[in-house]
Design goal:
Blueprint (H helix, E strand, L loop, with lengths): L8 H11 L29 E3 L1 E5 L3 E5 L6 H5 E2 L2 E5 L2 H4 L7 H5 L2 E2 L3 E5 L5 E7 L7 E5 L1 E5 L2 E3 L3 H16 L7 E7 L7 E6 L11 E4 L1 H4 L11 H9 L3 H24 L1 E2 L7 E5 L6 E5 L5 E2 L1 H6 L19 H29 L3 H14 L12 E3 L11 E3 L8
Antiparallel strand pairs: 1-7, 2-5, 2-6, 3-12, 4-5, 7-8, 8-9, 9-13, 10-11, 12-13, 14-16, 15-18, 16-17, 19-20
Length: 405
Amino acid sequence: MQLSQVVDPLPTWLYAERYLGVGTRGYSPYSADAEVSEPHHPQHGGPGFAVPTFWIPLERGTYLRNGHSSALHEQYCADGEFLLPVHPDTLSFAGLPGRDDLLASRPGPPLWVVPTANARTVLVERIGDAEPEPHFVKLHFPRRLSRFTRRLRQPIIELQLWVADELDRVGVPVLPEVGGGVFGIDADQAWGFLLRETAPRHGAGPPFTVPLFALYGNDLLHPDDPSLLEQLIAVSGEDPLAYAVRRIIEPMVGLWLTAALGAGCTLELHGQNTLFAFNADGSHTRVLYRDCGIYVDPAIRADHGLAGLPRVNVISADIAAPREQVWSLTYDSFMGHHVLQRLAALLRDHFGVSVAALQSAAREAFATRGGSPSLLPPTVYYYDNTLLDAGNWRLVDTGEAPLWR
């Protein structure tokens, strides 16, 4: 991608999602795995595809909302029923709960969508013949992407809607999940979708948005183009070290601490969930967040007198791993190892920036924004290398010292 040719924000975003991630998925043995059929694959498929929908009466499902008012509700919820989009690869899955009943339901207008890097989250361009405000839909996907099978059941949908409200409350610039639907009445089997807007509610940002991995990933279609980060630094005229610290590292550390200390929510700031917004000359930037399927710390919430918890992803309840280990997973591994180390390598190789200087800046940002050594363990924790059933996971002590706090 050539920054000088960037004109339209939405096509730029979608191009970055699909094609600017080359070389960014080497952080685990499973990170590049994707059980997605070729027509629906972000890199291998065509410009978009149709997602079938079905009208589900409310006696056979539930439409959920949170505290975010949104025009999207009018597109998906009508009197006594709601529109359920189903990924084609999910609809062909023989073990899909309620599949026969679903196929007998009244069909709705198909969604014309473009896949994002996540594959099962898609940008909706049309609903039948209508062209609504562009928005994302996160779909139930009972196939494996990376380490996990990406089912989207009612407790997780409720979690994400709850977290979106909490992040909004503490001022995190999150792309909010605003609603969703669930098909089925069995709490263990009911599944559905989530609606996500394309911009945060807190403040107007720069016009262009890309996933953070697009800053340091290579371009699949134009492999000789320089990275987007190199181009942004060049056009800004700023010192590379200062640019990275002020515009990426400090905001990311700040967002993680704001959510963790203010709401007990551990943001997963890896390269897909973290977004980088910018204008064409690189002078105005902002770090954003998406995907509220995260872990919640009840101890932090109790310390702040905050009431309420979701049904799932609660540390010390259904999440057995100790708080310190979960926090290390999200801070040290997702943000530190998966993102900041890759950014640091690019800055070192292309600009001669000291990696130690970048790590020192992150440690200073962590300390000055309220981070305490007691919150996290003295070593880094990450998943073990075993794929477990039912979405289960185990954390192991890598024995490595944390580099970014």
